[in-house]
């Protein structure tokens, strides 16, 4: 489980994610690095990691409930909580976006058949392609199912964010800070289950607000006299 600190940034590799090392696998680092690379291609400044945002994401992911982030009314309350938390923390980054979702860690299409087996070897998940044969058939080869690589995981997270409109706002708004947290969904571990990762990400920046000047009756009257709208009687 991430700890709400600043993560070491690095590029995603072709190395496969280790199920037993999700907490310290460096996933946060290559996600931030990837987002900043896309900003650089658009000649936009990098997002700096913010410990306040990281801690808010950690608090959100610790009490993760999918309905809170998919239901519009419930997520509106989540945004209110985040807004209050940012204000109370003294953060200057009051303009923000927040996303939270599950990510499938398995490098195998969920539309294809697979089975669980302790007798076969090669898969760290004990999952293998195809249906489990009732009778031993040497002509059937069951391929071991593996975890995604870092690059595959980054691609999937990017795709999910893009579908939620993240890219549009990322390049349009002046965000300067980023925070995220993740953890393994323990309910997704077990016989014939596909391991899932829970992820929450925030980007934020300063909210530029125009100061509305209060009307001054004396100045308004002086301008009216000057323009001839009000005549002064002798």
Q: Could you please describe the fold and organization of this structure?
A:
- The chain is α+β, with helices and mostly antiparallel strands and 234 residues long.
- The chain folds into 2 domains: 19-104 and 149-227, CAP (Pathogenesis-related Protein p14a, 3-Layer(aba) Sandwich); 108-146, no CATH class.
- The chain is 35% helix and 16% strand.
- The protein contains 7 helices and 6 strands, in the order H-E-H-H-H-E-E-E-H-H-E-E-H.
- It has helices spanning 27-41, 51-62, 66-70, 72-89, 150-163, 166-172, 217-227, and strands at residues 48-49, 95-104, 114-116, 127-129, 177-185, 196-205.
- A 4-stranded mixed β-sheet has the order 1-5-6-2, with helices on both faces. A two-stranded antiparallel ribbon has the order 3-4.
- Helix 1 crosses helix 5.
- The radius of gyration is 26 Å and the shape is elongated.
Q: What's the arrangement of secondary structure elements?
A:
Elements: H1 27-41, E1 48-49, H2 51-62, H3 66-70, H4 72-89, E2 95-104, E3 114-116, E4 127-129, H5 150-163, H6 166-172, E5 177-185, E6 196-205, H7 217-227
Parallel strand pairs: 1-5
Antiparallel strand pairs: 2-6, 3-4, 5-6
Helix pairs in contact: 1-5
- Percent strand equals 15-25%
Major sheet details = 4 strands, mixed
Helix content: 25-40%
What is the CATH C-level name of the largest domain? Alpha Beta
Physical arrangement of strands within the biggest beta sheet: 1-5-6-2
Helix count from the secondary structure assignment: 7
Q: Name the overall outline.
A: elongated
Measure the end-to-end span: 82 Å
